[in-house]
Each structure stands twice: as C-alpha cells, then as structure tokens.
Amino acid sequence: MDKKIRVLVAKPGLDGHDRGAKVIAKALGDAGMEVIYTGLRQTPEQIVNAAIQEDADVIGMSILSGAHNTLTKEVMDLLKEKGIDDVLVVMGGIIPKNDIPYLNSLGVEGIFGPGSDTADIAEYIKANVKR
Asked: Which of 66, 71, 85, 119 has the most beta carbons within 10 angstroms of its beta carbon?
C-alpha cells in the first residue's frame, strides 16, 4: 500500500479568513491525502517547522492578505536554508496575475485562485508531488 500524500495547509501572516483553506483541506482529504491544517496566523518559521515535523510532501499556503510575495519568499528561503528541496509548494488565494512569475521563480509550482476546482488541485498535487 502506498503512503498517503501528506499535505500541510497553512495560513501565513495576519489573514483572519480561513474558509477557503478549510474547503481545500477537506477536498484533499476526500481525495485520499493526509491533511494537516496549521490554523490561522502562522509565521513562515512555524510553517516550515510544521512541514518538517509532519514530514509533509506538500505545503499549501492560502494567502488573502496581499503579503503573498513577502511571506512566500520567507517560507522558500527557510526551506532552502534547511536543505529541504523535496516538498511541493502550492498556494491559493488572492494572487494578482502579475505576481505569479515572481512566485514561480521562488519555487512555488502551483498557484490556484478563487474559483479553482478542488478536483483539479488534488490532481495537480498527485501529478507533481516529489517522492
């Protein structure tokens, strides 16, 4: 039996709205993944430490606050600093199209905006997880 894909769903920064993150967490669980939801207002350090402790295959960040460039860079820098290069990083939320190339350059591989189909997100993860 294959090990389930472990997805850490995180809400970095001061964003206080997590309905979308909870919907994604439920959908990924329904798709057969093991989901760990960190809760609101996580620092980049907390997210990376949780990913390490939980042996996550995927970090999924949900950001609505507009601080996506700064917070994502901090998470990606910490992953590099800790030598973690086998975790798929995806994100969702309110991400302006002009910011997507920058986020991709940091190493974020999948970016899903409002209205994205949860089945498409699950399939993307299954097809791109690094294990």
From this structure: 71
